[in-house]
Design brief:
The structure is a single chain. The chain is mainly alpha-helical. It folds into two domains: 140 residues, no CATH class; 203 residues, Putative aromatic acid exporter, C-terminal domain (Four Helix Bundle (Hemerythrin (Met), subunit A), Up-down Bundle). The protein is built from 13 helices and no strands. The longest helix has 33 residues.
C-alpha cells in the first residue's frame, strides 16, 4: 500500500512538473509573438494558474480575473494621485490586499501585484499598457487552463482499486467470523475440568487468544481511495461525480463499525452455542458483500436471527449472561453495519445517482 501511494505521488508530481514546464514555455512564446512587453510574466501567470484539479484551476482563474480589474482600478487612482513611486506602490499594495481579503479574492493578490509593477516600471497606465497586461493575463491563464483540461482522469484506476478494497473487506468479515469461533469452550459450558491446565482453569477454560484483526491496511486503503475520488471529482467539470466520494465515505463508516465488533469479540473468551449463528451470518454477509447489494435481503435475514435468539432459553450463570450480552451487542453492530449501506442506497435513489450502478 505504501509503495502504491509513493508511486501515485511520484506520477502526480511528474505530471505537474511537465504541465508547468511546457505551459510556461508556450505562454512566453505566444506573448512574445504578439509583441507584448514583460512577456515572461505570461509564463509566471501560467505557472500560478495550474492547480491540482481542473475545477480548482477554473475557479481560481475567475477570482484572479476579478482581482485584475480591481487592481487596475485601485492602481489607476493611486498612481494618478500620488504618482509612480515606491510610496505609491506601497499604498496600492496596502489598499489592494485589504480589498482582496474583504472580497475573498486572496488567490489574485500575488499575480496581480506583479502585473501592477509593470505600470510602475513604465511610469504610465494608458490604454496600450492596460491592454498589454490584459494580453499577458489572458495568455497566461488560458494556457494554464488548457494544460489542466487535458489532464487524464483516474476513474478506471480507482474502480480497479475499489474491487481489491472490497475483497479485503470480505476477508475482514470472514476473519471476524473466525475470531468468534476460534475460542475453546469454558468448563461451565461443557468442557472437562480435569483436562484443563492450571492456566486454562485460571482463565475459565482454555488459553484466551488476544490477537485482534488488523485494520491498518484497510484504513490506509479507504483514505487513499477517498482522496483519489475527490481529485477525480475536481478533474470532472460536466458530469456528477459525487457517487465515488459518497461510496468510500460509507465504507469508511462501516469499517469503524467492524472495529467495534472486533473489540466486542475480544471480550468473549469462550464459544457459546449462540456464537455459531452470528459467525455463520458474518460469513454470509462476506459472501454477499458487493457494491450493488442493497442489503434488503440481509436485513430480513437478520430479523430471523433476532427471532432465533428470542426463543433461546435464558442464561443460567452470570458469566453466560455477560457473554451473551456481548453477543447481542455484536448483532446490533452488525445491523448498524448493514443499515449504513441501506441508507446509502436510499440516498442514491433520492439524489438520482443510481445511474452509476448501470
Amino acid at each position: 500500500m505504501v509503495k502504491n501511494q509513493r508511486n501515485f505521488l511520484i506520477t502526480k508530481n511528474l505530471l505537474y512538473l511537465l504541465k508547468t514546464g511546457i505551459g510556461t514555455a508556450i505562454a512566453i512564446i505566444i506573448a512574445e509573438s504578439f509583441g507584448l512587453v514583460f512577456s515572461p510574466s505570461a509564463g509566471i501567470i501560467t505557472l500560478l494558474t495550474i492547480q491540482n484539479t481542473k475545477r480548482e484551476t477554473i475557479f481560481i482563474a475567475l477570482k484572479r480575473i476579478l482581482g485584475f480589474f480591481l487592481a487596475v482600478i485601485v492602481a489607476f487612482g493611486i498612481f494618478n494621485v500620488i504618482g509612480y513611486s515606491s510610496i505609491a506602490f506601497g499604498v496600492f499594495a496596502l489598499v489592494f490586499i485589504a480589498l482582496c481579503k474583504a472580497a475573498g479574492l486572496q488567490d489574485g493578490i500575488s499575480m496581480n501585484t506583479v502585473l501592477t509593477t509593470h505600470f510602475l516600471i513604465e511610469q504610465r497606465m494608458d490604454i496600450s499598457m492596460i491592454l498589454n497586461e490584459i494580453g499577458l493575463l489572458l495568455i497566461g491563464m488560458g494556457i494554464g487552463i488548457i494544460i489542466n483540461l487535458i489532464m487524464p482522469k483516474n476513474k478506471k484506476q480507482i474502480q480497479m482499486e475499489q474491487r481489491a478494497f472490497e475483497q479485503e473487506m470480505k476477508m475482514i468479515l470472514r476473519s471476524l467470523a473466525k475470531d468468534l469461533k476460534d475460542k475453546s469452550i469454558c468448563p461451565v459450558y461443557g468442557e472437562n475440568q480435569e483436562t484443563l491446565t492450571p492456566l486454562q482453569k485460571e482463565q475459565g477454560g482454555s488459553e484466551v487468544k488476544l490477537e485482534s484483526t488488523d485494520f491498518t491496511h484497510l484504513d490506509n486503503e479507504v483514505e487513499s481511495l477517498l482522496q483519489k475520488a475527490k481529485e477525480n471529482e475536481g478533474n470532472t467539470l460536466l458530469s456528477d461525480t459525487r457517487y465515488l466520494i459518497s461510496y468510500f465515505e460509507m465504507r469508511k463508516m462501516q469499517i469503524d463499525v467492524l472495529k467495534t465488533i472486533s473489540n466486542h469479540i475480544n471480550q468473549i473468551p469462550v464459544v457459546l452455542e449462540q456464537t455459531y449463528p452470528i459467525a455463520d451470518y458474518l460469513n454470509h454477509v462476506a459472501d454477499s458483500f458487493h457494491e450493488l447489494n442493497n442489503v434488503a435481503g440481509l436485513l430480513e435475514e437478520m430479523d430471523q436471527l433476532y427471532e432465533y435468539y428470542r426463543k433461546q432459553p435464558l442464561p443460567e450463570t452470570r458469566e453466560e449472561f455477560e457473554y451473551r450480552a456481548i453477543l447481542f451487542q455484536i448483532l446490533k453492530e452488525l445491523e448498524h453495519f448493514l443499515r449504513i449501506k441501506r441508507i446509502f442506497v436510499l440516498e442514491l435513489e433520492n439524489k438520482n445517482m443510481k445511474s452509476y450502478w448501470k
